[in-house]
Amino acid sequence: MRLPIFASVLFCTVTMLPGLAHAQPASTALQTHYPAGSIQSEQQASAALSEVSTERKEIEQIFIEDKNACYDKFFVSSCLNSVREKRRMALRIVRKVEVEANAFMRKEKADERDRAVAERQLKASEKAEQSKALAPETDAVSAPPADTVSDQEPQKP
Asked: Counting Cβ atoms within 10 Å, is residue 69 exposed (0-12), middle (13-18) or buried (19+)?
């Protein structure tokens, strides 16, 4: 009795294998094109993000096609589970590249913001030094002392 179950599971596995290999080469190609730590410029990051977007669309299209093909099979649930797993694995590979590209873009924007702040602070300090140098130095400003107000009481009428 176990042999027919094993045979049917083996049959389903063999019939699903061609569909499982369908999305893997494209996502692994993306991974080999952008291995971990390879994104070093803003141009590479934007190119990687555009390829990720294209790859996601392709993975979703393949998922829809494979899912629809599952409904023609006897073990629909098993087939759907396999198709979902295939999609999850392909998206995991794509997600690694996407995360690295987004991290590089965030880091680049933060560095650019820091450079702009440092430049503004430098200009402000230079301007303050110039205004100090141009202003005449006075040791004591002659201002009337606070005690010079008359101590007399106002006259009453």
From this structure: middle
Confidence class for position 128, pLDDT limits 50, 70, 90 = confident
pLDDT in tens, 27-54: 677 777 788 888 888 888 888 899 999 9
Longest dimension (CA), the chain: 127
Domain ranges of the chain: 10-133
The pLDDT-based confidence of 111 (bands split at 50, 70, 90) is very high
